[in-house]
Design the sequence.
């Protein structure tokens, strides 16, 4: 019997070892599964916290926009109320005061426009007088030069032959054309100076 007892104790020990091993394996599995479930739970918590944060930020943004819209509406209403109050403070003129002021403004416009019209006519006449004076000066210069050239031509014809008279007439024509060009440029300059004076006024 002792042998059978040993066998039984050995069996018991082995079964204890096996059960202990199974228990340890189950504990390890439980730990790993609990670790896995913990990681999954933590992942779920982080996801839900992220979602909550996103929801909070969007809700904050929407609340801000709503609050801003409300404040804008309040500001607009306040501005219109103040505007109304300021309009009530205005002292509007009576009909007689309004008519008197209109008459004064219209009469001043008529007087100033008449003064400008008279000044415009005066400056235009002055400009025309200067242009006519320049033209007369040009005509007198050309006539006097023409008389001088005719006298020279007559003298040249008598003293020299036909060939020399042709040369002198060509020379005098050139001199006359040069002098007329000079007079024309002076007239244009005087017109420009009067035009600039009119613009300055």
Sequence:
């Amino acid at each position: 019997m002792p042998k059978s007892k040993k066998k039984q104790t050995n069996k018991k020990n082995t079964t204890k070892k096996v059960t202990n091993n199974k228990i340890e394996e189950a504990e390890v599995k439980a730990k790993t599964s609990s670790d896995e479930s913990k990681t999954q739970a933590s992942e779920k918590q982080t996801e839900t916290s992220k979602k909550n944060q996103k929801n909070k930020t969007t809700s904050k943004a929407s609340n801000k926009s709503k609050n801003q819209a409300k404040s804008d509406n309040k500001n607009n209403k306040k501005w219109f109320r103040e505007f109304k109050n300021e309009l009530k403070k205005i002292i509007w003129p009576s009909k007689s005061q309004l008519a008197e002021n209109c008459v004064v403004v219209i009469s001043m416009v008529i007087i100033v426009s008449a003064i400008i019209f008279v000044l415009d006519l005066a400056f235009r006449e002055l400009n025309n007088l200067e242009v006519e004076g320049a033209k007369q000066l040009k005509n007198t210069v050309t006539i006097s030069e023409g008389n001088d050239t005719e006298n020279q031509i007559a003298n040249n014809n008598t003293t020299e032959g036909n060939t020399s008279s042709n040369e002198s007439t060509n020379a005098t024509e050139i001199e006359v054309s040069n002098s007329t060009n000079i007079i024309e440029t002076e007239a244009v300059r005087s017109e420009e100076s009067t035009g600039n004076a009119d613009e300055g006024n």
Summary: The radius of gyration is 60 Å.
